[in-house]
Design brief:
This protein has 365 residues and is of the alpha/beta class. The protein has helices spanning 24-32, 45-50, 82-92, 106-110, 121-134, 153-168, 191-200, 215-225, 242-250, 261-278, 281-295, 302-310, 315-325, 348-352, and strands at residues 2-4, 7-9, 13-15, 38-39, 43-44, 70-75, 96-101, 141-146, 173-177, 206-209, 229-232.
């Protein structure tokens, strides 16, 4: 059981916010396959405040009945912009407001957002207090952060200043990525740091993040560090089965067989159908193409299937991939590990959140 405020989740593995990925279609599939809680891709506070009721942007604030509980992740620079954006996300139906102090992308840091706030605790804590005060008491507020700006003692002191202040302000949970902002995605995530922090705050809900590429990694982090839960990020792209698999492992049962080719096809078709509910056909196909390249990892002919998805130009060619490679059932194959490389900067948020200069372009995990 994982608790986030009043929310009681029956699995301590949740869907992380992923810029350019964790839109409503991805979250819907994750929930259908066992995720107890999902977080939408990060949104800029000023973008949320300027959103108009338009068909082409409605997916940003979309929360359906099957989503609950769902979190909305918010990022920005000005403490005064956060409260209005947080209230708007609550009004849209999100159950949790998650503040992003973890994004390490250079252009985000250059605009004093994301991980930049870990270097200025006073501003960070003002943002936290303003959001907590603006959000109804029955809506948990949470925080995503990295273990500091860099590896200096000064950076660590500021990290703990923000963390202690966050819990003192009433935040329900904090997710900590084991890398510094300066590291970005280079080098291993420091799980020992997570062990240390959870031991220092034994009564608080701390979730771990970083180097969670499969269900075994999720379970291992929980058991080795003692964190209350983990957020599946890169390891969940094209792998919504990670939640079912983690559930089996945590129950002491063996890892289930990889999904069969027909099971994979069913999920891919559901994912495309969800995307077509909120995007144009062209954009839905473009979004599913990048997911298809990761779904292909489960196919027994993974490299060939991945190449086929890469060549997709439109819905017709996407369907051709399914007809060619998913027409006959066969046993699936677990992706080759260790490690899954960081997806390339997609520019999806920059493309979608106007103006373009307001966006970010890297998965936030």
């Amino acid at each position: 059981m994982l608790r986030i405020g009043h929310l009681k989740l029956d699995l301590p593995v949740v869907q992380a916010a992923l810029s350019g990925y964790s839109d409503w279609p991805m979250r819907a599939i994750a929930r259908r396959l066992g995720a107890p809680y999902t977080i939408c891709e990060v949104m800029i506070d000023t973008f949320v405040n300027s959103l108009k009721e338009r068909e082409r942007t409605r997916h940003f604030l979309l929360v359906t009945d099957e989503d609950h509980p769902a979190g909305a992740q918010l990022m920005g620079a000005d403490p005064e912009e956060f409260p209005l954006a947080a209230r708007r996300l609550v009004d849209a139906g999100f159950d949790v407001i998650d503040i992003n102090f973890g994004c390490p992308v250079k252009k985000v840091l250059g605009r004093c957002r994301g991980g930049f706030h870990l270097g200025q605790p006073d501003v960070a804590l003002e943002i936290i207090r303003r959001v907590r005060d603006a959000v109804p008491d029955d809506r948990p507020v949470t925080l995503k952060m990295r273990r500091g700006v860099d590896d200096t003692a000064e950076s660590e002191d500021k990290f703990f200043q923000v963390l202690e202040g966050a819990f003192a302000s009433g935040l329900a949970a904090v997710t900590i990525h084991g890398r510094t902002v300066q590291q970005r995605y280079v080098g291993p995530s420091n799980w020992n740091f997570l062990t240390r922090v959870q031991a220092m705050f034994p009564e608080e809900t701390i979730l771990g993040s970083g180097d969670l590429f499969c269900a075994e990694d999720c379970v291992r982090m929980i058991r080795e560090t003692g964190v209350r839960g983990v957020t599946a990020a890169r390891g969940s792209i094209g792998n919504p089965w990670i939640f079912q698999q983690a559930r089996e492992l945590l129950a002491g049962r063996p890892l289930p067989p990889a999904p069969s080719v027909f099971e994979q096809r069913d999920v891919i078709e559901q994912h495309l159908a969800c995307a077509e509910q909120v995007y144009s056909e062209q954009r839905a196909t473009r979004q599913l193409r990048k997911f298809g390249m990761r779904y292909a990892d489960w196919h027994p002919a993974g490299a060939k299937v991945r190449a086929a998805f890469i060549s997709v130009k439109n819905k017709s060619s996407f369907q051709d991939v399914l007809k060619t490679w998913y027409a006959e059932d066969a046993a699936g194959a677990y992706p080759s590990l260790p490690g899954i490389p960081k997806p390339p900067d997609t520019g999806m948020v920059a493309e979608n959140q106007q103006p373009a200069s307001q966006g970010i372009s890297s998965p936030n995990e």
